[in-house]
Amino acid sequence: MTSTADQTLRQLGLTIFLPAAVWATGLGAVAPVIVLTATGLGASPATAALVAGMLGLGQISGSLPAGVLISRVGERNTMMAASVLAVPALLACMLAPNVLLMGAAVALLGVCGSAWMLARLAYMTEAVRPELRARAMSTLGGVNRIGTFTGPFLGAGAMHFGGLRAAYLVAVAGVAVATLILFLLPPVPHDRAIPPGTERPGLWTVIRTHQRTLRTLGIAVLLVGALRASRQTILPLWGVSLGLDPATIGLIYGLSGGIDMLLFYPAGKLMDVYGRRAAAVPAMALLGLAHLLLPLAGGPIALTAVALLMGVGNGLSAGLVMTLGADASPRVGRAEFLGAWRLCSDVGVGSGPLLIGAVTAAASLTAAALTVGGAGLLSATLLQRWIKPQL
């Protein structure tokens, strides 16, 4: 990377990457625990998968409103609001007396996460030059993967001393620290609302104008979201089916996140230098293959091997959705378009765990793994077709 690129990414460090890393670390602590908490409340594996899917449903419902909110009040104010709502959502997950209330709290947490990430994406799309875009986006994706890596270890340590509920306290602390960082740091240059009186297109006008992109490449991105969310749900469920204890499941999950952490920058450079396809297609093919191999994992060692393969696929896709969205976004109505773009991904995030729950209830967890694996191969095919070769 050139010195100019180094300087650009360094300038984004405190304002963009640091709060995102802290936020992701906090939520990473509870990512594998949501399913375990639901089963502890008496939910079956299928119902527990549905509860985990509420995170994606919350993201779905929050994507479009977040895009409109960002265009009106700015990305920093949007993130502050999301942080304020995330704390009670986490406490409700921790203290929920039944599965229904927990599902509602998980959905609210998804709304907050959607607003937070969309605000980061909207700023970086404008702030970073196109030739450095994938590296910047993959770095943002990478700091989230760092959170995915460190969060479960922190959560596992907390659970060792305080049980499942202690992991939620780690998440609350992470959200609080990220909010404090946002409050103390000066606003970034693009962190502002559109001045009053400025003409801007409505949300539905933006969607109609770019409907072809959303119904082609957007479908492929939907499948990307499904694969990523399925990985987060099916690994803990498979560990439960093997009789592994929560700390061991959290450890395996964290090791998978470690691979993500190592690959985020190479993935971005690969996309900047060789095009978006160079990382997108292998990433989805590997994630699909890992799901297809999951039924062969009959113990902790085999499950760890599959989890590491999932980590490789997920790591290669670091920043992929954000980069493709930034490439396709218009100058006018950018936040609204990115909200619709995130909706495509978030529909996948929500449908992945729901698909696992539905197939598990109708057939088995093995059938669910094979179904998601097939979706991964389909995603690789669609990305190969719809990503423009010059990107």
UniProtKB/TrEMBL annotation:
Gene3D superfamilies: MFS general substrate transporter like domains (1.20.1250.20)
Domain Major facilitator superfamily (MFS) profile: start-end pairs: 12-391
Signal peptide positions (record): none
Membrane topology: Multi-pass membrane protein
Pfam families in the cross-refs: MFS_1
Alphabetical keyword list: Cell membrane, Membrane, Transmembrane, Transmembrane helix, Transport
Entry-linked InterPro entries: MFS, MFS_dom, MFS_trans_sf, MFS_Transporters, Sugar_transporter_CS
SUPFAM superfamilies listed in its UniProt record: MFS general substrate transporter
Entry's transmembrane regions: 12-36, 48-70, 77-97, 167-185, 279-297, 303-325, 362-383
Localization annotation: Cell membrane
Top-level division of the source organism's lineage: Bacteria
Protein name listed in UniProt: MFS transporter
Organism from which the protein derives: Actinoplanes couchii
